[in-house]
């Protein structure tokens, strides 16, 4: 997965390309501690809306919108960012590619790539407003080398504003274009038997979590060839993804529960492409994963364990400061077979029980503190994930109650669900 980052307050905004890997396309490990892999150096020195694509020779290209952090979305800009790589770890220098030179008064948003077998060239679709038009369309420019490109042509015009394209080719003899339909607020789908500009016809109204849903990303399942996933970004609240699973051909989609996927923290406008096990291993060897984890609630899977005013609770992400939800899992302070949870933004502070309530407190070095801050990870009481048994009170487990964290004896189905968590990255 490629993405850039934003947070609610803007404190976590990073307009640069980040990468994450996954074995199932649902649970993601951010690389480089969720720091940037490719900081932009050309143009505005900022990016949005990255797109990754494996080229016909097996090498890679990364494209992105040229907008700096805090920059104007609508400022005219004919260029997009381009990086190329033979292996996802050795990258070219950042450069600009002009794709929209004939529209001097328009922006060039959200580039995406597909192969055009007739032209023997790569089509770069992007959002813009053509000269003389009053609404946005999907345009296309063609390139063979990602150094120069043709003048743009209108690729898809819905008669009203559309943004954010993803073209998938060669599925049961048809090609598919998904986009954000500004009139309906949904991620809609069009299809064609060719990839010619103007040939696509809408075939499904698609999906949306709300009218802020945008940035459709189509991903074919690696294990079930007829199953597709459709990711959608949202900006209300910002930095939150929704996921649907279904049949691309019929345009039938079912919302996936948040228990079944976890996107990287603060990720925006993702791009997903299949990679090999060798690619994954090479990326992890070069960049590493994360040095911290998040704890995801089982029965409120949009909520994560955090501290607020040094009290433990679960809150719905996104929130700021987002670092309140990041924990370093240390060997148990009183028993190395257990685990202790150290705060990332308050190093040396740990989750501990005080009168059965969870507080985040500086380690005072005492044996009593160590025992109160140690838990034993066991199989999830609700039959999945993990639960954490108190070292101080071995019949009590970490759980949330009215979203506050505490340790309790567990005897009900609700309690078992409250006491079950997933350790994610």
UniProtKB/TrEMBL annotation:
Keyword set includes Hydrolase: yes
The Glycosyl hydrolase family 32 N-terminal domain, residue ranges: 18-103
Keywords: Glycosidase, Hydrolase
Domain of life: Bacteria
Annotated Alpha-L-arabinofuranosidase B arabinose-binding domain residues: 295-422
Family: Belongs to the glycosyl hydrolase 32 family.
Protein name stated in the entry: Endo-1,4-beta-xylanase
